[in-house]
Design goal:
It is a single chain. By secondary structure, the chain is an alpha/beta fold. The protein folds into two domains: about 190 residues, Alpha-Beta Complex (Spore Coat Polysaccharide Biosynthesis Protein SpsA, Chain A), CATH 3.90.550.10; about 90 residues, no CATH class. The protein is built from eleven helices and ten strands. The strands form two sheets. Strands 3-2-1-4-8-6-9-7 form an eight-stranded mixed beta sheet, sandwiched between helices. Helix 5 runs antiparallel to helix 6, helix 7 packs antiparallel against helix 8 and helix 10 runs antiparallel to helix 11. The radius of gyration is 21 Å and the shape is globular. The termini are far apart.
Length: about 300
């Protein structure tokens, strides 16, 4: 069963060889690698072409800088495998990664569209459960560390996001995947080696009210008329959005309609101490201080 490994690349010459080598050294052999150069200005493009000349399983695509989502879509469009997995160009995968992911699609008496590597969770879940777990931040929302049946990306709106979504594009894509999928396997095993890259988009982001609100609206639009099926998960997602605004010192007003509604309906759910603080203290500076104390106390208690 052929697997297409898609690697979006942008200015990662320092890590690129390790990434590609980890894929080439897979114990499972029936795969192709699609390397998409998203307008790199360093030597990344030359390195990709060098690898393509040495191994016929590798295809390279060069495009102007259009963002990681466009690079991934390019890979999906040109892929020929039944299954797809994504690898970021500054990361690596374990030697048995593809074999382990494919093995997890077998058995269970039903078709599996997604395999998601998780911690503390195993077996099959529904697409709806997957969506809820993403919304409540209990499963990795990234595209990496997963295996997808290629067909679920047909007409995928989240692969058409522009560069104005530099953060959270994986999150949105997985939400859409979950809404289109009936059966997902949770594999309680790590097959992906994430590398901390201080210059990556996630580690250089600046939180803004405009982007957090836009992202919230986009999630709401993706859930569409099924949003009531995820009522509690949607509430907790919004509460985490509010927390991000507070802890990252973003200026906002508690009079914003969605925040007012959030605080109004807090009694509908069982909340953690941290969440209770966020809903009760309606002063961002004071709330941030109390949250920092709560975090220190939690760490102190944990180490007792």
């Amino acid at each position: 069963m052929k697997v297409s490994v898609i690697v979006p690349v942008y200015n990662t010459e320092r890590y690129l060889r390790q990434c590609i080598d980890s894929i080439l050294q897979q114990s499972y052999s029936d795969f192709e690698i699609l390397l998409v150069d998203d307008g790199s200005t360093d030597n990344s493009g030359k390195i990709l072409d060098e690898y393509a000349r040495k191994d016929n399983r590798i295809r390279v695509f060069h495009q102007s800088n259009r963002g990681v989502t466009a690079a991934r879509k390019c890979g999906v469009v040109h892929s020929t495998g039944e299954y797809i997995c994504f690898v970021d160009s500054d990361d690596t995968i374990t030697q048995d990664a593809i074999q382990d992911l494919l093995h997890a699609t077998l058995g269970g008496g039903g078709e599996v569209d997604v395999v998601a590597c998780t911690t503390g969770r195993t077996g099959f879940i529904s697409g709806d459960e997957f969506v809820s777990l993403i919304l409540i931040n209990q499963i990795n929302p990234e595209l990496w560390g997963k295996l997808y049946r290629k067909s679920i990306f047909d007409n995928c709106q989240s692969l058409d996001l522009g560069k104005d979504y530099p953060i959270g594009e994986d999150y949105l894509a997985n939400l859409e995947v979950g809404l289109k999928t009936k059966r997902i396997t949770c594999l309680p095993k790590s097959v992906y080696n994430y590398r901390y890259n201080p210059s990556s988009a996630i580690n250089t982001r600046t939180y803004t009210l405009a982007y957090e609100e836009k992202f919230r609206v986009t999630v709401k639009q993706l859930l569409g008329n099924r949003i009531t099926d995820f009522e509690e998960a949607w509430y907790r997602f919004q509460l985490r959005t509010l927390e991000n605004l507070i802890v990252n010192r973003v200026k906002f007003s508690y009079r914003l309609p969605w925040i007012k509604e959030l605080l109004k309906t807090k009694h509908n759910y069982t909340l953690s101490v941290r969440q209770i603080i966020i809903t009760l203290v309606h002063n961002a500076v004071l709330c941030r201080f109390i949250l920092s104390v709560e975090l220190k106390l939690k760490k102190l208690i944990k180490h007792q």
